[in-house]
Design a protein that fits this description.
The chain is an alpha+beta fold. It has 3 domains: about 140 residues, DNA methylase specificity domains (Adenine-n6-DNA-methyltransferase TaqI, Chain A, domain 2); about 100 residues, Bipartite methylase S protein (Helix Hairpins), CATH 1.10.287; about 120 residues, Adenine-n6-DNA-methyltransferase TaqI, Chain A, domain 2, CATH 3.90.220.20. The protein contains 9 helices and 22 strands. A 5-stranded mixed sheet has the order 2-8-6-7-4. The chain has a 4-stranded antiparallel sheet with strand order 13-19-16-17, with helices on one face. A 3-stranded mixed sheet has the order 15-14-18, with no helix packed on it. Strand 14 and strand 15 form a beta hairpin. The longest helix has about 40 residues. The two termini are about 15 Å apart.
Length: about 400
């Protein structure tokens, strides 16, 4: 099937975000009611952007622009050519381009899927001597598929059905993680554990609790560095210094569940719980062999992210070391209380594991279908009954 290919400006209006004020991080620009989307928010979004880490004040808005829902956000610096669709009104800086489709010319979801296919090309043309950047001049050299609008809608409907299910799974995962964290705070920060009303407190601590080091209930170890050249193709995440796996290998060096703490770089100290075996590389880790209280330890690290940040060493390249994680101070409850908490939240994390497995299956199915639909390799045929369409 032959489709027309056009530059992005033939499908909709496109322009850069706006952040005129200098310095960009002036305190008076932030803390208001207007969502402020950054490149990391685009990268972390599944399909639609509904969450954000910062807001603009009225002064922030006055030097920026409020973009409408269904604007496609395209990162042009830092993480190049990541895309997600605004689910809310929001501002964003000039490190993001905004695309608004022309009515009855393009479907914003279809254009987003086109970027998923063309992201590698976008990254290649963005490479520079000092810093990678995707300017409109560079982006305008890339041609996007432009089948008839009705066909774009049909293709987007099929693919977005997968993304809607993925999004729903992610929301359920987040709710379960929040439930585990709330229970931790209630029991171990606010001391409102079962039977607290009849518990004697000594110097502000429940009877039987002690102040100690994390290393008394868990042992964090240093991972084993592995380079990309040493990796063999596989599905085992290699956890290093970033927020996401650096690459994938064919074997693990941990036993799930496992906590990893990024070892170096801008994200040094970032903790994450994996429900699958991973290869721990440039990170510290504790797994089911090094602590019987893994879920408690993870909740402690999430609750005390500021403590982890204080462990960063090195001015040019921050590092966080396993030996320092093990020295973190905390209140240690009796063993039966630790076991009780872990037994309760293990149910939550069991559900999370199953949801993650479902999400991976859906993602793989969508990714197999994506290039075939977007290239026209798979045609769309009407159902024998009704007004729907099916993949032929």
């Amino acid at each position: 099937m032959s489709w027309e290919y056009v530059t992005l400006d033939k499908l909709g209006s496109i322009s850069r975000g706006r952040s005129k004020h200098r310095p960009r991080n002036a305190p008076e620009l932030f803390g208001g009611k207007y969502p402020f989307i950054q490149t990391a928010d685009v990268k972390n979004a599944n399909f639609y952007i509904t969450e954000y880490s910062q807001t603009y004040s009225d002064k922030g808005l006055s030097q920026s622009k409020l973009w409408p829902p269904n604007t496609l956000c395209i990162t042009i610096a830092a993480n190049i050519a990541d895309t997600a669709i605004l689910g809310i009104e929001a501002c964003f800086p000039d490190s993001i381009m905004g695309f608004i489709p022309y009515e009855n010319v393009s479907d914003v979801r279809f254009v987003k899927y086109s970027f998923d296919i063309l992201q590698r090309d976008c990254k290649q043309i963005s490479q520079g001597t000092a810093q990678d950047n995707l300017s409109w001049e560079k982006l305008s050299t890339i041609k996007f598929p432009a089948p008839p609008y009705e066909k774009q809608v049909k293709i987007a409907n099929i693919l977005s059905a997968y993304d809607d299910l993925i999004e729903n799974n992610q929301k359920q995962i987040k709710l379960l993680e929040e439930a585990a964290q709330r229970l931790y705070k209630e029991w171990f920060v606010d001391f409102r554990f079962p039977g607290h009303e009849n518990t004697e407190f000594v110097d502000g601590l429940p009877s039987g609790w002690i102040q100690g080091n994390l290393g008394e209930i868990a042992e964090f170890k240093r991972g084993k560095t592995i380079t990309k050249a040493q990796v063999h193709d596989g599905k085992v995440p290699v956890v290093a210094g970033g927020l996401e796996p650096a690459y994938y290998h064919n074997k693990a060096n941990t036993i799930a569940p496992v906590i990893t703490v990024s070892g170096s770089g801008a994200n040094a100290g970032f903790s994450r719980l994996y429900n699958i075996d991973v290869f721990a590389s440039d990170c510290s880790f504790a797994d089911s062999e090094t602590t019987p209280y893994l879920f408690f330890v993870y909740a402690f690290l999430k609750e005390n992210k500021a403590l982890l940040d204080t462990l960063q060493k090195g001015s040019a390249q921050p590092h966080v070391y396993a030996k320092d994680i093990n020295t973190l101070k905390l209140y240690i409850p009796p063993e039966d209380r630790l076991k009780e908490y872990c037994n309760i939240v293990s149910f939550y994390y069991g559900k999370i594991k199953r949801l993650e497995e479902q999400k991976n299956i859906l993602t793989e199915a969508r990714d197999r279908l994506l290039p075939k639909l977007m290239s026209g390799e798979i045609s769309l045929s009407p159902f024998s009954k009704g007004n729907g369409y099916e993949v032929a």
